[in-house]
Amino acid sequence: MSKGLIRNIGIIVSGDLESPFCDGDAVLIVDGKIAAVGREKELDAAGADTIIDAMGTTLIPGLIDSHIHPVFGDFTPRQRTVDFLDSELNGGVTTMISAGEVHTPGRPRDIVGLKALAIAAQRAYANFRPSGAKIMAGAPVPEPGMEEQDFADLARAGVTLIGEIGLGGVRTPDLGAPMVKWAKKHGMMVTIHTGGPSLPGSSAIDAAAVIEIDPHIVGHINGGTTSMSKTDIDKLVRGTTLAIEIVHCGNPLTALYAIEAAMDAGAVPRVIIGNDAPSGTGVVPLGILRTLCLLTACTSLPPEQAVALAAGNTAKLYKLNRGLIGLGREADLVLCDAPSGSVGKDAIAALKAGDIPGISMVMTDGVVRTLRSRNTPPAARAAKLEKGSVGGLLGGH
């Protein structure tokens, strides 16, 4: 049995929108899951293999990026960049969800080929976890000619995602709606591309088409990169119950419009946060943190609730046992503080001020994956690893 303790925590942000804080100054971890949250003096940490002094800093759940475009391994040919997944983990993101492996060179569009690619990606990332990050991949982009049996075959092989409808040849409700029904019948989560086209051969998709196709998730409602109109955003935020995804690599003005519309409509529990990278915008390791800064610094959204958009909201949508700090949850955790020089006195105040927090520890499954982040600004106060060691790559060649 492995046991870990994070002690001397200043603030515990739960990742839950309704109850955004946890009372306590310590978290006990047993066999990779959270066993207790409370006061250090009340926890049984005897025999702990790992002990971390948080130095009064803020503990948040590992963040979840709802929109990435991986290929294979930790390399993206879209921007010819290695270690982009490890780099995002250094931005506090411990789970990354594929919206389609669309940048695969020579990506097959025939039905046999696209199914094979999705199954291979799902299997590969189940075995490969760069720096301990959890990559949910294998998201086929639907093409004309697919039938229900194709979705049944994919589901039977372990594929649980459908990549962005609209990035392939399925762009209209007459083709898309039946496929979404088949995907849902077989337990698959469906994302749709919205706004202007992002790849050659893709199409603009408006609110009317989204409503008729009826996916689970309105992908990048603020554009990827070109946004829908505010009128269309209102139709989807106020007139549907679909999950609303706001991304970093989109339109910042309509990102703010979308979150304000969601707050006004009581739809914030449906909002999730993605990067939509790698893309033409680039590789953005701090994209999730930057989006949280934007949404809380420029609106009335409290920063602790902003964290929930990139944690508990996404975890609940995808039925993941992470993204929340609570008993029995996977111990995917991040320690952070206001960056040196910030007007904020802690990570929460820094977010509200528009400053990216400094990360000094990232953990997945109770294992420390990195201490001081190589991407965030330095934390004013940094956590100390008092006992234990830093883990690394899981899987590989």
Automatic annotation (TrEMBL):
Family annotation (CDD domains): metallo-dependent_hydrolases (cd01292)
Domain Amidohydrolase-related: start-end pairs: 58-366
InterPro entries xref list: Amidohydro-rel (IPR006680), Metal-dep_hydrolase_composite (IPR011059), Metal_Hydrolase (IPR032466), Metallo-dep_Hydrolase (IPR051781)
Protein name per the record: Amidohydrolase family protein
Gene Ontology molecular functions: hydrolase activity, acting on carbon-nitrogen (but not peptide) bonds
Superkingdom field: Bacteria
The species this protein was found in: Tectimicrobiota bacterium
